[in-house]
Design goal:
The protein is built from seven helices and seven strands; from the N terminus they run ααβαβαβαβαβαββ. It has about 190 residues and is α/β, with parallel strands linked by helices. α2 runs parallel beside α3.
């Protein structure tokens, strides 16, 4: 067992966290996941990154902190209110913040390739998984969190998470690891 040390938060993080409280957003990614995303992003200089499920942008702030000057990041969410809130705070020319239906976006962007995909919503995680994995460059990283039971899970979601874990760990195109850490993180690297 180890303890994750508290590191300085990235730009935008505190402002976004305050807005979470102000508007009652109660589903942000945990700080350790953000710290991991920052490190993984930093391992891909000049990379092209995708976040499915912007939420209130806390994980996005960590991802931005890991990017170099030549990297780009697309983040999207189908909640227009959240996208408006995040867009008011994050201003970075390397980042595209989109209000979009994740399923439709994935289906229409199959020619796009990414160095890392953080799937933090149903599209790209529980729906259109194969299409999302196809969007990774070889050596690209696929990451999901919230794989351990959460208080806000609907009944039966534990079976969905277990099935997804099984699929990803056995996937022919990935080298994957499931970590009983934070909210439960699974990382796969495309062969």
């Amino acid at each position: 067992m180890f303890t994750v040390m508290k590191y300085p938060t990235p730009p935008y993080y505190e402002q976004l966290r305050e807005r979470c409280t102000d508007i009652g957003f109660d589903m942000p990614s945990e700080m350790p996941v953000g710290q991991l995303l920052k490190v993984l992003i930093a391992s891909k200089p000049g990379g092209n990154f995708l976040e499915l499920g912007t939420g209130m942008g806390l994980s996005l702030s960590w991802m931005i902190a890991g990017m170099d000057g030549k990297s780009t990041l697309t983040t999207l969410d189908d909640d227009e209110k959240l996208i408006r809130e995040v867009s008011k705070i994050i201003d970075d020319p390397r980042v595209s913040i989109l209000h979009a239906d994740g399923d439709q976006w994935i289906e229409t962007k199959q020619a796009e390739r990414f160095d890392l995909v953080f799937a933090d919503t149903w599209p790209g995680k529980y729906r259109l998984l194969e299409e999302t994995l196809a969007m990774l460059h070889p050596g690209g990283i696929y990451i999901v969190d919230d794989m351990l039971p959460q208080e806000n899970w609907p009944e039966g979601h534990d079976r969905k998470a277990a099935a997804l874990t099984e699929v990803l760990l056995a996937h022919d195109d990935l080298v994957s690891v499931s970590m009983n850490w934070s909210t439960g993180v699974l990382i796969g690297v495309k062969k």
